[in-house]
Amino acid sequence: MSEWTDMYRQKLTTPEEAVKVVKSGDWVEYGMATTQPILLDEALANRKSELKDVKVRTSFSFSPRQVVEKDPNRETFTVSNWHMSGYDRKKCALGQMNFSPFCYRNEPSLYRNILDVDVAMIQVAPMDKHGFFNFGLNVSATEAITKKAKKVIVEVNESMPRVLGGRGECIHISDIDAIVEAGNTPQPTIPFSTGDEIDTKIAEMIVKEIPNGATLQLGVGGLPNTIGAMIADSDLKDLGMHTEMLVDAFYLMYKKGRLTNKVKELDTDKAVWSFALGSKEMYDWVDNNPFLAAYPVEYVNDPFVISQMDNFISINNCIDVDLFGQVSSESAGTKQISGSGGQLDFADGAYRSKGGKSFIAFRSTFTNKKTGKTESRILPTLTPGTTVTDPRSQVHWLVTEYGMVNMMGKSTWERAEGLISLAHPDFREELIKAAEDMKIWRYSNKR
């Protein structure tokens, strides 16, 4: 213990001293969500007048990034982002940040094989008696980032839970160049909230399709939360968890005895995840809990890994779907909303799983905030510039409040028929007309 304590004292410094290692032209890595630095970000931003052409990679920000706030015209710092939060989305729309398209599963290999990292600044949990700092709520690609970096600075936050692996969840003090202490800064939280009667109707259809012993992946948002809460209140038994994002719905399932992981073919008895965002109560559950196992995203999101678990059920939502079955879950036209994430990986892996199913669930309409009008999420074709997250060839089940349709193996006219049956009745006639114009509507199709 004394050896690591002595090394800790030697490497402990101030944020201002630590960021002096950054040089003009460097690539600086902030990591994702809860691993992003606070004090180091502020200190680096304060060096704006001393530096030139510093590139910063970040992802899923839950507090303002000072390298953006203090340099809105990007005179010194060019910030790129792997996955958009609400804050990131606004900055991207203003031209103060750029989006980096990627397959989330590939992130660790991108760092190992392609990307340069001069300095990594990562928030961690306090050092343990063996000299290890824990990455806490975001394992994801953090280990790959720190291994590639020429210099590693950790920002120690006493509020960061210590998570168990799996693998890739920690870094040893001998691999760290500088340590900064951040006290006890609360971790960002997302309140758990379920949807309304429309979400409940969608959830009821999906929950009926889940067998005992199924392994689950859930996306984020009110609709997946509603589904998760309904599963928790069901009589399903021995469910497993294998999900990129750990959310409160799983904690609720655990508390009500649904989540045991006893019959999973892989990581039996362990609830597997890659990053976590939710309530303080969930973070307390994650802390030092052997029931859970954190892994890098290249393992969690690997379709081959997912496919080895029987009755794998993947549940996600989306922004728009067109009559050909193409799904966008990340952009509206050229406006970047979030990112690709692992939706396609889980859709593919769940379909390959014995008894598995992938569900893309969404409300049939939304209210346009600018016009106040109700618009259909099912479109003749996606708006120009919209990113296709799931190609039509890999979409399994689509679900709205009007029903559910299996898209696998369907011709273009069958797809059009199925999708129009999921649309709000007010939009069906115009969708039929569009399908006729595109020659994907059969004369005998249902109206």
From TrEMBL:
Where does the protein end up? Cytoplasm
Q: Which reaction does it catalyse?
A: butanoate + acetyl-CoA = butanoyl-CoA + acetate
Q: Could you tell me which pathway this protein works in?
A: Lipid metabolism; butanoate metabolism
- Keyword Cell wall biogenesis/degradation listed: no
Acetyl-CoA hydrolase/transferase N-terminal domain residues: 7-190
Q: Looking at the UniProt record for this protein, which Gene Ontology cellular component terms does it annotate, in alphabetical order?
A: cytoplasm
A Pfam family reported for this protein in Swiss-Prot or TrEMBL: AcetylCoA_hydro
The UniProt record gives the binding positions of CoA as 219-223, 319, 342
Which SUPFAM superfamilies does this UniProt record tie to the protein?
NagB/RpiA/CoA transferase-like
Cite the EC number: 2.8.3.-
Catalytic residues as annotated in Swiss-Prot or TrEMBL? 244 (5-glutamyl coenzyme a thioester intermediate)
Q: Which InterPro entries match?
A: AcetylCoA_hyd_C, AcetylCoA_hyd_C_sf, ActCoA_hydro, ActCoA_hydro_N, Butryl-CoA_acetate_CoA_Tfrase, NagB/RpiA_transferase-like
Give the keywords, sorted: Cytoplasm, Fatty acid metabolism, Lipid metabolism, Transferase
List residues of the Acetyl-CoA hydrolase/transferase C-terminal domain: 278-435
Superkingdom:
Bacteria
Gene Ontology BP annotations: acetate metabolic process; acetyl-CoA metabolic process; butyrate metabolic process
Q: Which terms in the Gene Ontology molecular function aspect does this entry carry?
A: acetate CoA-transferase activity
Provide the family line.
Belongs to the acetyl-CoA hydrolase/transferase family.
Q: What does this protein do?
A: Coenzyme A-transferase that converts butyrate to butyryl-CoA.
* Stated name of the protein: Probable butyrate:acetyl-CoA coenzyme A-transferase
Please tell me the species this chain comes from: Megasphaera paucivorans
